[in-house]
Amino acid sequence: MKKKLLAIFLAATMVASLAACGSSSSETATDKETASTDSAEADNSAAADDATDAATADSSDPWANVDTSEHVKITYMTTGDRPSGTEAKYEEMMTELNKILTEKVNAELEIYFIPWTDYLTNYNLTLAQMDGTVDLVGTASDWLDAWPNSKNGAFLELSEDMLKTYAPQTWASVSPEHWDMCKYNGEIYLMPEDNYAQWTNHGFIYRLDWAKEAGLDRVDSWEDMTEYFRYVKETYPDIIPWDSDGTHHTQLAGGWISSHTNFVAIDGICSGALWGGTRDNLYTVTTPAYSDTEMMVEFAKTMKEWDEIGVWRTDVLNVGSTTNRDDYRVGKVAADQHHTQTWTDLVSPTSQNKIYQDDPDAESGFFYFGQETGNVTALSITHGAMAVSAGSANPERALMVYDLLRNDPECYQLLCYGIQGVSWDVNDEGLRVEPEGYNADTDNINQTTNFWWGRNDDLEIRDATRDWDKIDALYAEYDKIKIDYPYGQFVPEVDDIQSKINNVNETYVNYMKQIAFGKYSGTAEDIVAEMQTALKQAGIEDVTAELQAQFDALYK
């Protein structure tokens, strides 16, 4: 009923707002219905003049014809822990932000944090209440159940008219193709973060200066990585080259597969990312870990070699946690395995990265998975997206607030960086710096609001501590070879096969713990054959067949 009433209201609002949009022909049609035949021409001429005047007067206010007389509170739900230690600066920022929101749309914002502990369960439980607790919802198709929540009715359908009326800048900035990728069953449910450059493809961050000592201009392959690790262990025997905590098994396997095939994984089906297509045959489902025996045997052999070199601790599978990243910052390890965004930090001469202060020759390279084959897939534009809760009492105002947070420079900078002169400032080159008297323990609220659902490169202020020459060079390299994520509209129906997916994934993970760290007995051929037999018994072929049927229905 709420949606029907909203649709009626929107229709009325759109008719009333046509003058502000400069649609004089529609106004003329309306006037002809209500005016007498004798005076129609004169009335229509006057109406056209009034429409022109209104459009001119209201050009700076896209919501001039929207009723905002009632002050409302809009609650934005995001994953992450509430700011600790910086509460005072956070509250100051929210006060300033709400002054602007009140002035522009007569609304104030409150942030509802879902702590990281058991975050997905608590996130979905909060949404399921449908009690108006939240209005705007940060979501994602690959890690925050965006499509299941759309399917289950937790999110509001966003019509084109609704978006044009209440989020006009967002509507105009997103391409028709990207809006299509935000649809489920033909309806828009998400507003994508599609104008923010970020790369979360994984790889190895390594000491480029040490690689050069080993005779490598840079690390371009897994073979180079092996040579690098062997050199480090021989030259710096007291260093653990990569002090892994033993949890990187599926990332290593996925990285190997990306580098030795043109596989493109489907996001969100399982942690092992087992199913997908290939760059030359995107819509035929395949599982290289199961079907490409020769490749997986070679992986097992290489990981056994790394184990024998001493790349990680001998008890790596029982470690649980390490300080590897912090140790990399000070030169105590030779590599870290994570995504490109992490490298952009570790490659830069920040105060934390003491290797550059202690050693003027220190450099950090990045060997990205898929480098040998040029197999890089851009992040889905719905990796971060904003939705409106179907339980929201004020969905129209929620969209207006989001439109400001995403597109208004002053609102954006407050939300993402805090108060200028307190939590950040700008230097002569236009880069973001710490202001005089800055205290990171109390003043740093950069991204503490966790606005990962509408970041906008047009409004971003680059961090002066980052090495943008190196970062831009790598991003340019990616742009030459990347493909866009091709499965953004695929919403797998897995209810009937979920138990098999779980069994297959558990089997794969258990074997990868052994294979990816070289901790298996017998030959590489034996362990891979054993794994593939177990995967078949767990139902991998049945899952593949069902996913293929769904692909055929959607794409063929």
TrEMBL record:
Residues spanning the membrane: none
Domain DUF3502: start-end pairs: 486-555
Signal peptide: 1-19
GTP-binding recorded as keyword: no
Origin superkingdom: Bacteria
Start-end of Low complexity biased regions: 36-61
Keyword Signal in annotation: yes
Keywords: Signal
SUPFAM superfamilies membership: Periplasmic binding protein-like II (SSF53850)
Protein name (database record): DUF3502 domain-containing protein
Organism whose genome encodes this protein: Eisenbergiella porci
